[in-house]
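Collaborator request log, item 7. Partner lab (contact: R.S.) asked for a structural prediction of N-acetylmuramoyl-L-alanine amidase to inform their binding assays.
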Amino acid sequence: MATVMPATGIRRASAKRCRTDPAMGDAIRWQPSPNFGPRRDGLTPELIVIHYTAMSSAEAALARLCDPAAEVSAHYLIAGDGRVWQMVEEMQRAWHAGAGRWGGQGDVNSRSVGIELDNDGTYPFSDPQMRALEGLLAGIMDRWRIGPAGLIGHSDMAPDRKFDPGPRFDWVRLARQGLAVWPGQDACGEGDFIADAARFGYDPEYGADAVLAAFRARFRPFATGPLCAADTAAMQDLAHRFGVDRIGNSA
Ligand SMILES: [Zn+2]
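Returned to partner:
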């Protein structure tokens, strides 16, 4: 599965071309990774998974994502200054998600497009990086008919072991543009937090504490302490409006 493409170094100048999204033109640099395989069971992308690289630079992350020994990859990498590299064709299965589940389904790699952002979670994601991400998301969502509920963080699908993209990632900015979901301002009610979490997409098998931590990192980044009414109300609203049965056809 990893032998189709030759091992690569960084050959930016000769490799620069657009592979997938003509609208972004030269904004996307093609830097092939050998770390991919075919999507399994005829699956196509229904999710987009956001990551941060937690590396010293975008170039260091690019080298690792293209290193056959690392056995990791993503479809796209976005630098802090807005440069975008594509490493794996969207039709192919990149190795970014690992073990985890969302919406009652495993093998997230076969169901998703993976996007890495050059950040380690300790500082804000830059405006050029977010603008590049927004352009990329719009194209991916259009090509694969993915609605805003299909955009998730790595921590959402693997809350027991992953923290990216973390509480500094600006989900609200994406939600305002219809690229992500966000709970209603006046959500209220006394739902069953873990049941609603499962309906929204989280796997309850990870346990209430891990799911609450992942949920808060994304939707209530300044919340602390035990589960409270605001958590329950927000999760109930998300489950009601964006439950897993609606992924792929939510507008
Ligand atoms: Zn990740």
